[in-house]
């Protein structure tokens, strides 16, 4: 695609509905996923306490990532009102991250958990459950035809919803490139964007995504400022 080709953005709404293995899913502009029939909200890769983890190694980041991430999560919970929340791994940046939560952040998180089923999926950054916070811990969760896990399994996997790769999509409009975190799907599986304030993104044209999707059916839902944009695969560039 040449730099001068304009991209027609298919959606400019706060969320976008799609289906994976026949199940309706709602992609929210903040990077969370809602399953209406299950009253379930899914978030991935919060990486709470990443700032404090870096500080312990002498790399000082502004220590506001956890507060920012939890504030956004609380806002989306108030909108969707789920009965269940599933965190798809790397909820904390390391195995002891939950121990470094400030008291205000701990109280904010426990308030969100109160009265809801809350599941922590094991991630590569946080393989141990945050024992002091409550909730359930699992390696995977099965919801009908959907399998929820942290790291995508190799090959084409029907019904898999995963995180880990922090996907982002890049388009070119009017000779300017735009790269945003995104959901990526082919209707058979879906990989979620990272929800954490201090997390980066990996272009879905990176070879890490090779073999994970049917390239004839792939599309992405890019996250904008309180808007999402559904982009066909032919417009996504490296």
Number of helices: 3
Unreliable parts: 1-7
**Structural class by sheet pairing and helices:** alpha/beta
CATH level-1 class: Alpha Beta
Sheet with the most strands? 9 strands, mixed
Radius of gyration: 17 Å
% residues in beta strands:
25-35%
CATH architecture: 4-Layer Sandwich
Overall pLDDT: 91
Run of helices and strands = EEEEHHEHEEEEEEEEEEE
- Shape by Cα distribution: globular
Percent helix range:
10-25%
In total, the number of strands is: 16
Number of domains: 1
The CATH topology, please?
A: Purple Acid Phosphatase, chain A, domain 2
The separation of the N and C termini measures 11 Å
Short note summarizing the structure:
The protein is an alpha/beta fold. The protein has helices at 50-56, 65-80, 103-113; strands at 15-20, 23-28, 33-35, 40-43, 84-87, 117-121, 136-138, 141-143, 146-148, 160-162, 167-173, 176-185, 190-191, 202-203, 219-223, 228-232. Helix 2 (65-80) runs parallel beside helix 3 (103-113).
Blueprint (SSEs and pairs):
Layout (H helix, E strand, L loop, with lengths): L14 E6 L2 E6 L4 E3 L4 E4 L6 H7 L8 H16 L3 E4 L15 H11 L3 E5 L14 E3 L2 E3 L2 E3 L11 E3 L4 E7 L2 E10 L4 E2 L10 E2 L15 E5 L4 E5 L6
Parallel strand pairs: 4-5, 5-6, 6-7, 9-10, 10-13, 11-14
Antiparallel strand pairs: 1-2, 2-3, 3-4, 8-9, 11-12, 12-13, 12-15, 15-16
Helix pairs in contact: 2-3
Q: What keyword list fits this structure?
A:
alpha/beta, Purple Acid Phosphatase, chain A, domain 2, 16 strands
């Amino acid at each position: 695609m040449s730099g001068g080709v304009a991209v027609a953005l298919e959606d400019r709404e706060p969320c976008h509905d799609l289906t994976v293995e026949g199940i309706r899913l709602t992609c929210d502009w903040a990077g969370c996923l809602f399953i209406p029939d299950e009253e379930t909200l899914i978030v991935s890769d919060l990486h709470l306490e990443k700032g404090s983890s870096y500080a312990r190694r002498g790399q000082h980041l502004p220590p506001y990532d956890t507060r920012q991430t939890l504030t956004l999560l609380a806002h989306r919970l108030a909108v969707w009102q789920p009965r269940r929340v599933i965190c798809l791994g790397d909820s904390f940046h390391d195995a002891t991250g939950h121990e470094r939560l400030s008291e205000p952040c701990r109280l904010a998180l426990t308030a969100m958990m109160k009265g809801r089923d809350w599941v922590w999926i094991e991630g590569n950054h946080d393989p141990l459950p945050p024992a002091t916070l409550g909730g359930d811990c699992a390696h995977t969760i099965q919801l009908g035809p959907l399998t929820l896990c942290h790291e995508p399994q190799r090959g084409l996997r029907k019904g898999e919803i995963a995180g880990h790769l922090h996907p982002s999509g890049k388009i070119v409009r009017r000779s300017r490139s735009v790269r945003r975190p995104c959901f990526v799907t082919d209707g058979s599986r879906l990989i979620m964007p990272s929800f954490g304030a201090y997390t980066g993104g990996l272009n879905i044209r990176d070879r890490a995504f090779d073999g994970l999707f049917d390239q004839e059916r792939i599309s992405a839902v890019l996250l904008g400022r309180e808007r999402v944009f559904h982009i066909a695969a032919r417009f996504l560039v490296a």
